[in-house]
Amino acid sequence: MELKKWNKVIASVVSATLLFAGCSIGGDAVASVNGQKIGKDVYEKTLGLYSPSYEMQFGPDIWNTEIESGVTFSQKFQEEILEKMINDEIILQDAAKKELTVSVEEINTQFDELKKSIDSQEQFKSILESNGIDDEFLKEQVKKDMTVKKYYDTLMQENEVKEDEVRKYYDEHIDEFTSSQVKASHILFAKKDFDKNEELSKEEVAKKKELAEKVLGMAKSGQNFADLAMKYSDDPGSAKNGGDLGYFDKTTMVKEFSDAAFSMKPGDISNSIVETEVGFHIIKVFDKKENIQKFDDVKQSIASNLQYQKYESVIDGLKKAAKVKKNEDVIKKVREEFGKKQEEKAKKTDENSETETTEQTDTETKK
Length: 367
Description:
single chain; alpha+beta; 4-stranded antiparallel sheet; 3-stranded antiparallel sheet; 11 strands; elongated
């Protein structure tokens, strides 16, 4: 699961105005950015904002799911949230240096809209209250969020991309805007017994390769390719159709096969056997077609991407220059407390589920 998409999940539940948490309100610090602390209490409240959306979408057992070797979803989630908070604090500090601020009226308007959204969702409102998230905390997050948004908009405007830059990128990366397809057939000599789902022995694989070389010579000498495929190919899907694979793009087939097919011209038969993890292939290309997107159709998206790259370059520079310290002892403590809280929720969910099942069984028995 991709943790970097967490903000999209939350945005659908509450509002994008809750995405940025910053400096310490009090208590122990989990980290500091250029001397500015990020408090344990703010970190815990931020975790409390985002965790419910995952539970509602994937269930309470999601936290103990291992997503990497030895790393649970809970650990990765907490790491990503803290990194997000640190990055936003770096941005907020630079925004202050540039005297980028948001008016009280703008903050109040945004906060009022947020409150209406929360008040219309009783379950989520209850979760916020149980995590100690009050209006003061929410309004502070709205202020930070709007400041970060203003910072982003300002930098994007300052780094406007000129059309000659866009044209240069288009010309130098034309492959990105070209959709290529090949129509080909193949004859497969598999390294595996598909019926038994077993790998062949080294001796059997060697014999397969020897047969492939022999059939390649037959194809090169002019024998009908489709007939050879129907007689010799181990591919159960295409053999009966003379090896026909239809049209496919560069990402459809495994790399070795794709590289060979796209390097050939219509009418060509591969000069040598193409080996992949599946087996040995003889390839014949029948047609190639390309669709190149016009510059006018893609120039706006290219400009936006280049503009964002410039923005990211500025942010990367700020990150490298920032003095960031993490308090691993406090972070560990938060991790343990968060874990216990999720375990209690999961246990309570299981107990409620068992109670409902028992009640349902009793009802059915009485009937």
